[in-house]
C-alpha cells in the first residue's frame, strides 16, 4: 500500500486545472469562428437543397427546448465524474424528476413541481452515492439498478396516484399525470419580429443568422434561462473556487487529495447528490415545459444522450453545451417530422466525412481515412438517389448522431484519472 501511495503522482490538483483537456485550448474567438463555420455550412445546405426549416426560428426554438434536458443530464454527469463517480443512473434520476415534477406541478404550481423534480433526482443521486461511495458497489451496476428501480417505482405510483379520484377527473391515467400550468416564457419584444421578417427573405447566411437568433429570443422558458445560468455557475464553482479544485482532485487522485486533508467521501457525496438534482431538473423540464404532463417513457434515453454529450464535451461545461445543442438539434428534427431536413443534412454529412478522410490520410491513418471516404461515397449515393429519408430513420436521428459524434471525437478525450474507480478511506496508508 505504501508503494502505491508513493508511486501516485501528488500534483494531481495542479493537473486538473491545466490546459490539457482539449477544449480548454479553444478561446472565445475560436469558438465564434467554429459557430460561424457551422452556420455557413448550414446556409449552404439550405441554399442548395431548399430545405428552409434547417435554420428556421421554429427549428432552433425546438432544438433549444430539446437541448436543455440533455444538457442538464450531462451537467449532472459532469459533477459526478469530476469527483470520480460514473453516473449511468442519470436516466433513472431524470425519470424521478419527470414523475415528482408533474405530481407536485398539477397539484400546486409548476415552480413547486420543479423543486419536487430536483428533490426526486437528488434522492436517486443519494442512493447512488451510498451504493458507490460508502459500500463500494461497481458504479455501472449501481447506475443500471437505479434506472430499473426508478422505472418500476414511477410505473407503480403512476397507477396508484394518477388513476383515481381528482387526478383521474382532471385527465390522469395509469401512464400519465393531469396537466400542470405553464412556466412563464419570455420573448424580446420588437427584436423577435424584426428577425422573423429578415428570416422570411431567405438571404444567404443573413437570414440563417436571423433564424438562429430569433429562435433564441422567442418564447424562451424561464427554466431554460435557469439552465443556462447553471452552466455558468458550474464552470465558476468547479474551475474558479477552492471547493471545485478539491472536488476535481477527488476525481483525479483521491489518495493525494486525502493526504492533503480533503474529505474525499464528503466531496463525492456532494457531487453525486448535485448530479442527481441536475438530472431531476432535466426530467422536470420534460414534464413541466415540454409536455406539461408526466408520460411514461418520456425521457426516451435522454439521460444516456446527456452522458454522451458530456463525454463529447471532454468533461467540460462549454463542450457539453455544444454537444447538447447538437443532440437537441437532431432531436428537434425528428419531432418536427423533418424527413426533408434530415435528407438535406446528408449532404453536410458527406462534406464532413470527406474532410475527415482527407485529414486522416494526411495524418497517415490510411485505414480510418479509407473507411471515412467509403462512408462519404455511400451517403452521397444515398442523397442523390432519394428525395427524402424514411420516417424510421428520422426517428433514429438523435441516436445515430450520438454514435457518430462519439466515434469521431473519441481520440481527443481525457476523462478524470480516477473516474469509476473504487476508493476506500485510508487507501494510501
What key attributes describe this structure?
429 residues; mainly alpha; two-stranded antiparallel sheet; 20 helices; 1% strand; globular
Detailed description of the structure:
By secondary structure, the protein is mostly helical. It is built from 20 helices and two strands. The chain has helices at residues 2-7, 12-16, 28-49, 57-82, 90-107, 110-134, 139-161, 165-169, 191-199, 206-217, 222-240, 242-252, 254-259, 264-290, 302-312, 317-335, 339-362, 366-385, 391-395, 397-409, and strands at 185-186, 220-221. Strands 1-2 form a two-stranded antiparallel sheet. The chain starts with a helix and ends in a 20-residue tail after the last helix. The model is unreliable at 1-24 (pLDDT under 50).
| Low confidence ranges | 1-24
Shape: globular
* Rg, Å, rounded: 23 Å
Would you list the SSEs in sequence order as H and E? HHHHHHHHEHHEHHHHHHHHHH
Summary of the model, kept short:
The chain has 429 residues and is mainly α. Helix content is 71%, strand content 1%.
Give the helices and strands, then pairings.
Blueprint: H1 2-7, H2 12-16, H3 28-49, H4 57-82, H5 90-107, H6 110-134, H7 139-161, H8 165-169, E1 185-186, H9 191-199, H10 206-217, E2 220-221, H11 222-240, H12 242-252, H13 254-259, H14 264-290, H15 302-312, H16 317-335, H17 339-362, H18 366-385, H19 391-395, H20 397-409
Antiparallel strand pairs: 1-2
Amino acid at each position: 500500500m505504501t508503494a502505491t501511495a508513493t508511486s501516485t503522482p501528488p500534483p494531481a490538483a495542479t493537473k486538473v486545472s491545466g490546459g490539457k483537456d482539449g477544449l480548454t485550448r479553444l478561446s472565445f474567438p475560436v469558438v465564434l469562428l467554429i459557430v460561424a463555420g457551422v452556420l455557413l455550412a448550414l446556409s449552404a445546405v439550405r441554399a442548395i437543397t431548399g430545405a428552409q426549416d434547417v435554420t428556421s426560428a421554429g427549428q432552433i426554438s425546438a432544438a433549444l427546448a430539446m437541448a436543455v434536458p440533455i444538457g442538464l443530464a450531462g451537467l449532472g454527469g459532469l459533477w459526478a465524474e469530476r469527483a470520480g463517480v460514473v453516473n449511468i443512473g442519470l436516466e433513472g434520476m431524470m425519470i424521478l424528476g419527470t414523475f415528482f415534477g408533474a405530481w407536485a406541478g398539477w397539484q400546486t404550481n409548476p415552480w413547486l413541481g420543479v423543486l419536487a423534480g430536483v428533490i426526486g433526482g437528488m434522492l436517486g443521486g443519494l442512493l447512488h452515492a451510498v451504493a458507490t461511495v460508502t459500500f463500494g458497489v461497481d458504479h455501472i451496476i449501481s447506475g443500471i439498478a437505479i434506472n430499473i428501480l426508478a422505472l418500476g417505482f414511477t410505473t407503480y405510483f403512476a397507477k396508484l396516484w394518477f388513476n383515481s379520484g381528482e387526478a383521474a377527473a382532471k385527465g390522469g391515467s395509469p401512464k400519465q399525470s393531469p396537466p400542470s400550468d405553464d412556466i412563464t416564457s419570455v420573448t424580446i419584444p420588437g427584436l423577435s419580429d424584426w428577425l422573423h421578417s429578415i428570416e422570411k427573405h431567405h438571404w444567404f447566411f443573413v437570414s440563417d443568422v436571423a433564424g438562429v437568433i430569433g429562435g433564441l429570443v422567442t418564447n424562451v422558458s424561464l427554466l431554460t434561462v435557469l439552465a443556462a445560468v447553471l452552466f455558468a455557475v458550474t464552470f465558476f464553482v468547479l474551475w474558479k473556487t477552492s471547493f471545485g479544485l478539491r472536488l476535481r482532485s477527488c476525481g483525479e487522485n483521491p489518495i493525494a487529495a486525502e493526504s492533503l486533508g480533503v474529505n474525499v467521501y464528503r466531496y463525492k457525496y456532494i457531487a453525486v447528490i448535485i448530479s442527481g438534482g441536475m438530472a431531476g431538473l432535466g426530467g422536470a423540464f420534460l414534464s413541466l415545459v415540454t409536455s406539461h404532463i408526466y408520460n411514461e417513457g418520456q425521457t426516451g434515453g435522454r439521460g444516456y444522450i446527456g452522458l454522451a454529450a458530456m463525454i463529447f464535451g471532454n468533461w467540460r461545461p462549454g463542450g457539453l453545451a455544444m454537444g447538447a445543442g447538437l443532440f437537441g438539434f437532431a432531436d428537434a428534427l425528428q419531432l418536427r417530422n423533418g424527413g426533408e431536413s434530415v435528407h438535406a443534412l446528408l449532404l453536410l454529412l458527406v462534406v464532413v466525412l470527406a474532410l475527415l478522410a482527407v485529414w486522416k490520410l494526411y495524418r497517415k491513418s490510411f485505414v480510418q481515412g479509407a473507411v471515412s471516404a467509403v462512408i462519404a461515397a455511400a451517403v452521397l449515393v444515398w442523397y442523390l438517389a432519394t428525395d427524402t429519408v424514411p420516417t424510421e430513420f428520422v426517428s433514429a436521428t438523435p441516436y445515430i448522431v450520438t454514435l457518430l459524434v462519439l466515434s469521431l471525437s473519441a481520440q481527443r478525450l481525457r476523462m478524470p484519472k480516477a473516474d469509476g474507480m473504487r476508493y476506500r478511506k485510508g487507501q494510501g496508508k
